[in-house]
Amino acid sequence: MSTQLIHTISELRETLSRQRRQGKTIGLVPTMGALHDGHGKLIEQSAQQADCTVVSIFVNPIQFNDPLDYDKYPRTLQTDVDCCASRCAGIVFAPSDEEMYPEPLRASVVVSELTEHLCGRFRPGHFRGVATVVMKLLQIVQPDRVYFGEKDAQQLAVIRRMVRDLNVPVEIVEVSTVREADGLAMSSRNQRLTHAEREIAPVLYRALLAARRRVSGGVRDTGEVKRHAEAMLRRPELRIEYFEIVDPDTMQPVERINGPVRVVTAVWLGSTRLIDNLLCEPQRL
Ligand code: PAF
Question: Which atom number of ligand 1 is nearest to the Cα of residue 31?
Answer without folding.
Answer: 8
